[in-house]
Amino acid sequence: MTYQDQANLSLDPQFQQRLAAGLAKEAKGKGTVDLPALVLRNPAEGARIFMPFVASEPGYDLAYAGGGQAAIDDGMLLSGIQANWDTVSAVYYPPTQPTEAV
Fold first, then answer.
1. b/e burial code for range 3-31 (CB count within 10 A of at least 16 → b)
2. How many Å apart are CA 87 and CA 41, to the nearest integer?
3. Is the pLDDT of residue 34 over 70?
4. What is the 3-state secondary structure (H, E, C) of the chain?
């Protein structure tokens, strides 16, 4: 694994577009508030916030180094999105803590 390959993948315009498209499709079934709403309103912004999580998925850097962004097939991309959805959601939309009654 090289961080350079991971960085190059995260800056690849075609991969960014594919990630945005995959996120928009995945968000359609997740409601219309919080992270799904953000992704549906602006898929490119969704790709921006998901990129550090998805580009660092195991094996993505090796695939990219061996064949460019096309070596990361749609199944891999969907898997990366699904594996990181809850984590990204928690980072950007942390659950609210109930307040204690006084």
1. eebbebbbebeebbebbbebbbebbeeee
2. 20
3. yes
4. CCHHHHHHHHHCHHHHHHHHHHHHHHHCCCCCCHHHHHHHHCHHHHHHHHHHHHCCCCCHHHHHHHHCHHHCCHHHHHHHHHHHHHHHHHHHCCCCCCCCCC
User: Which amino acid, residue 82?
Assistant: Q
Structural domain spans, the chain: 3-92
pTM: 0.91
More confident residue, 38 or 95: 38
- Are 50 and 88 in contact by the 8 Å Cβ rule? The answer is yes
Percent of the chain predicted with pLDDT > 90: 89
Side chain identity, residue 57 = E
